[in-house]
Design brief:
Elements (H helix, E strand, L loop, with lengths): L3 E5 L6 H15 L2 E8 L15 H4 L1 H35 L4 E7 L2 H12 L3 E6 L4 H7 L2 H8 L3 E6 L11 H13 L2
Parallel strand pairs: 1-2, 1-4, 2-3, 4-5
């Protein structure tokens, strides 16, 4: 049924569960896996982008130094993410699954769909952080984008109840809406 399963992995708590599900599907269907991590500044583990204000006006050398530090942090982030992918690929190989692991930089949803098309995936498996409502509108939803733009079937693995984000208390919700109204 499935021959090529693309597994989109991030570093969230649910990523381990997503990988385990993908491995089980690959073993069951004798399918190939492509483990994909998208390098994005939006990733929870990505280093913070340096700001040049006000340092470029008061301490010109500081902005150069902060950019170098950022570049070093970015390289460490890339290497750590690749190390995780390699470990997962080794686990899949030990289970007898044909597997590839890759990292791409870009917009996560677009990159996942592009890789699925290029690799001719039959299925995309990815996790969901459970964003809804205002936070989904503000921050976006990779799983939502992929479901609507993927060239193949998509399986979204929801976070368990323990991993689900807790709802924002009503008094904080009213405060946020009030603050946003003040921006107009």
């Amino acid at each position: 049924m499935f021959h090529n399963i693309l597994v989109a992995l991030d570093h969230s708590e649910s990523a381990v569960s997503v990988f385990d599900q993908a491995l089980e599907l690959a073993v069951t269907h004798d399918a190939n896996l492509l483990l994909l991590h998208v390098l994005s500044t939006d990733d929870q583990d990505a280093p913070d982008t340096p700001t040049t204000f006000p340092s470029m006006y008061y301490y010109p050398g500081l902005s150069v130094a902060s950019i170098k530090v950022y570049q070093q942090q970015w390289e460490q982030y890339k290497q750590a993410a690749m190390d995780i992918l390699k470990a997962q690929a080794e686990e899949a190989q030990l289970a007898g699954v044909s597997v590839e692991a890759t990292q791409k930089q870009g917009s996560p949803g677009e990159t996942i769909c592009e890789m699925a098309k290029t690799w001719e995936a039959d299925l995309i498996l990815l996790g969901s952080r459970g964003r809804a409502g205002f936070s989904e509108w503000l921050l976006g939803s990779v799983s939502n984008y992929v479901m609507h733009h993927a060239p193949c079937s998509v399986l979204v693995s929801r976070a368990s109840q323990a991993e689900q984000p807790q709802p924002v208390p009503e008094h904080l919700n009213r405060q946020l809406i009030s603050n946003l109204a003040g921006w107009q």
